[in-house]
């Protein structure tokens, strides 16, 4: 039985779109109102295709539906693999009226969205996220792209979807390591904007790790609400949106250092948020107890608390030097002004940053 639990709108004027959240929605919800032409191309990967492609096809009755299956993994979030999507579109003669559908986790979502932004100078797309991370974060907001060996998500475009369909039942096949990775981004929302959500997470983390339906539905709804509000205020990251990058300056450095896919995005962001909290405590904006509270939450989610063995402060500094938030060569970090309140700043004292890096790189 299918049940829509929540529906919200990302309010972007003529580019507004719904996020439909519920149980058993795949195969039950008719998505053709969000499709303009007669053709649909589902972009997915070799893990997700056998699990969900049949149900996904059923969301597009009366349409001509094709499928491109990508290899699975963050290491394939690159130019070469992106090109497989264009190959499939051209081989099947998809026109500029086609609609792409990204069916999978954040990797498929970011690549499918970027392909949609580029193909014949831009075609519409729909997000059907199937990991917790993609349901709480990557499917919303229109950031799309691929990695470069020298930096995460360095090539991409802002391209908003027509709709986001979140079926929480798809999480039942997700490995527990991936559930924990998704919880890192959930914790992020509490830290940047919603102190009440932080309190709730402390009480309910066990239920989330165990994927209890009611708790997971709540966490997805609150996360998407927070992201939708921030994106509606600052679609292209002119200012406020950068708070969604809490933990990512350190986290992206960890992902690039360790080789894409060895550390999951959520794992790297979890450590990055503890590092950002540590630096905030050194800057005096939160207490040492609050810093410990962040580490505890990350650990409760089943995530690592320290960067990879062998990563040095210099590795961090070199990789963070290409961070997209930097301006005129100045490192800008998202720090906590208080628990539940984040700010982007270039003003962290160099000696405090050095102390944070030294503390975390001591193994
Ligand atoms: N665009 C954004 O705003 C944004 C936000 C956050 C993260 N991201 C990006 O998202 C990516 C991470 O996304 P992710 O954590 O979803 O990883 P992922 O896409 O690699 O998916 C994780 C794993 O789960 C598998 N999988 C997906 N759905 C499944 C299901 N229902 N059952 C079983 N297995 C399933 C995938 O095949 C993969 O092996 C990173 O590249 C990150 O940079 C983008
Ligand atoms: O949507 C955003 O904005 C975010 O920053 C969300 C992040 O969780 C996500 O990982 C995003 O892809 C990072 O963007 P980037 O611009 O730092 O590459
Ligand atoms: Zn992220």
UniProtKB/TrEMBL annotation:
The pathway to which it is assigned is: Metabolic intermediate biosynthesis; chorismate biosynthesis; chorismate from D-erythrose 4-phosphate and phosphoenolpyruvate: step 2/7
Q: Which GO terms describe its biological process?
A: amino acid biosynthetic process; aromatic amino acid family biosynthetic process; chorismate biosynthetic process
- Quote the Pfam families the UniProt record gives: DHQ_synthase (PF01761), DHQS_C (PF24621)
User: SUPFAM superfamilies annotated for this entry?
Assistant: Dehydroquinate synthase-like
Catalytic activity, as annotated:
7-phospho-2-dehydro-3-deoxy-D-arabino-heptonate = 3-dehydroquinate + phosphate
Q: Which GO terms describe its molecular function?
A: 3-dehydroquinate synthase activity; metal ion binding; nucleotide binding
* Alphabetic keyword roster: Amino-acid biosynthesis, Aromatic amino acid biosynthesis, Cobalt, Cytoplasm, Lyase, Metal-binding, NAD, Nucleotide-binding, Zinc
Any binding details for the cofactor? Binds 1 divalent metal cation per subunit. Can use either Co(2+) or Zn(2+).
The catalytic activity of this protein is classed by the Enzyme Commission as 4.2.3.4
Main enzyme class: lyase
3-dehydroquinate synthase N-terminal domain residues are: 68-180
Cofactor (UniProt): NAD(+); Co(2+); Zn(2+)
So where does Zn(2+) get bound?
185, 248, 265
Per the record, its GO cellular-component terms are: cytoplasm
Q: Which residues form the 3-dehydroquinate synthase C-terminal domain?
A: 182-326
Where does this protein hold NAD(+)? 72-77, 106-110, 130-131, 143, 152
**Can you tell me which family this protein belongs to?**
Belongs to the sugar phosphate cyclases superfamily. Dehydroquinate synthase family.
| Function summary | Catalyzes the conversion of 3-deoxy-D-arabino-heptulosonate 7-phosphate (DAHP) to dehydroquinate (DHQ).
What is the name of the protein in this document? 3-dehydroquinate synthase
Organism of this sequence? Marinobacter salinus
Lineage of origin: Bacteria, Pseudomonadati, Pseudomonadota, Gammaproteobacteria, Pseudomonadales
Q: Which gene encodes it?
A: aroB
């Amino acid at each position: 039985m299918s049940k829509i639990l929540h529906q919200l709108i990302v309010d972007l004027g003529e580019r507004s779109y719904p996020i439909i959240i519920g149980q058993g929605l795949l195969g039950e919800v008719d998505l053709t109102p969000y499709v303009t032409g007669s053709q649909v191309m589902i972009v997915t990967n070799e893990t997700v295709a056998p699990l969900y492609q049949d149900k996904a096809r059923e969301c597009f009755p009366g349409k001509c539906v094709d499928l491109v299956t990508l290899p699975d993994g963050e290491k394939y979030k690159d130019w070469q693999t992106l090109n497989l999507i264009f190959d499939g579109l051209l081989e099947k003669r998809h026109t500029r009226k086609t609609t792409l559908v990204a069916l999978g986790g954040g990797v498929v979502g970011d690549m499918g969205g970027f392909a949609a932004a580029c193909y014949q100078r831009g075609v519409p797309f729909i997000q059907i996220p199937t990991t917790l991370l993609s349901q709480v974060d990557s499917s919303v907001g229109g950031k799309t792209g691929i990695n470069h060996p020298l930096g995460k998500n360095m090539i991409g475009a802002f391209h908003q979807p027509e709709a986001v369909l979140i079926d929480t039942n798809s999480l039942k096949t997700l490995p527990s390591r991936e559930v924990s990775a998704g919880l890192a981004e959930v914790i992020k929302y509490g830290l940047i904007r919603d102190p009440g959500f932080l309190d709730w997470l402390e009480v309910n983390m066990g239920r989330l790790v165990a994927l209890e339906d009611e708790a997971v539905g709540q966490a997805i709804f609150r996360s998407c609400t927070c992201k939708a509000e921030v994106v509606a205020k600052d679609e292209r990251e002119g200012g406020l949106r950068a708070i969604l990058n809490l933990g990512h300056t350190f986290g992206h450095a960890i992902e690039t250092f360790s080789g894409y896919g060895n550390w999951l995005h959520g794992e790297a962001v979890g450590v990055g948020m503890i590092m950002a909290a540590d630096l905030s405590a050194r800057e005096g904006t939160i207490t040492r107890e609050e810093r410990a509270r962040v580490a505890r939450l990350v650990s409760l989610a089943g995530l690592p608390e320290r960067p990879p063995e062998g990563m040095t402060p210099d590795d961090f500094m070199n990789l963070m030097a290409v961070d997209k938030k930097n301006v005129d060569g100045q490192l800008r970090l998202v720090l906590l002004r208080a628990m539940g309140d984040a700010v982007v700043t270039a003003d962290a004292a160099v000696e405090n940053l050095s102390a944070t890096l030294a503390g975390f790189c001591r193994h």
